[in-house]
Amino acid sequence: MAMSCWQTDKSRVKLVLMKNILDFLACQKCLGELSEEKEKIVCKKCGSSFDLKNNKYYFTQVKKDINPSTDIKITDSKKWTEWRKKNFVFFETELKNIPFGSYVLDIGAGKAHFKTLLKNMNYLAMDFFDYEPINVVTDITKQLPFQSNKFDCLILSNVLEHVSEPQALLKECLRILKKDGILLMTVPFFIKIHQEPYDFYRYTPFCFEYLLSQAGFVKTRVENIGDIFDIYKVIKKELFNVVNQNLTKNIKSRYLRIIPRVFLKIFEISINTVFQIIKSLKIFTKAKKEKTNYSHGYGIVAKK
Ligand SMILES: C[S@@+](CC[C@H](N)C(=O)[O-])C[C@H]1O[C@@H](n2cnc3c(N)ncnc32)[C@H](O)[C@@H]1O
Ligand SMILES: [Zn+2]
Asked: 107-120, pLDDT tens digit by residue?
């Protein structure tokens, strides 16, 4: 069986960072042209100035209440959840349609863990927290600091649920995309609250269609990523963690604590096995609605 590509060796991947970033950037306030001065970029039109530190352009200061991701699992693909692996496959498939050398902006890129897929692109990463791979630090609920009609492809991976004004962001995405440019998004539907307080929405496919057409995108495709079995795995993991902690918290002896844990493990393995068997029987192909209406999340492709 072919090895899935999310298992590729990241250390060998060299990312091409866009060289002429200033040709793409614009003043966040008036979209005027910018010029670079010592540790600053200055708007030629309105005179606003923004910081340039360690090769990062700061259009906003990093807010104190952001809960940055410290999850090392994000960068180590071997530890990825089913959701992340399936996200990777979605982007891998869709990015095959984007020609090498295209200008790609990763919006809310975080630690840019899908960058292995973008090694042949002119890549730029943006976020409101200044993670190491981020080039442009800005709040995406505001006007995006880019000139219009500049990018071939935009990536929003697990970001739309964190944005208080999704409609305004999608309109901005349309503005900075070239004609026929592509927006690729993944958005979880079933996921715990995370990166609070910046976690605002869970969407349905109908909502994506609505928001994207209202924003002016001409063609939209929404596909399910993950199914009811993936959701079950997520709930089961959380549930067993909670039960495990509660079951043993009043038992003083380290050795006695092992007994309920062993029983719990046996129980967990047994139901895992039952579900594996049920899944292999493929009875859910008959129960199509249960399969599709319980999607773990969605992959969306929209064209300008
Ligand atoms: C769940 S993480 C996803 C990160 C990455 N795209 C991924 O798929 O792993 C959401 C990202 O959106 C960023 N984000 C949330 N709200 C934002 C905002 N208003 N402006 C800019 N970035 C934001 C967060 O800092 C975080 O890196
Ligand atoms: Zn300006």
From this structure: 999 998 888 898 88
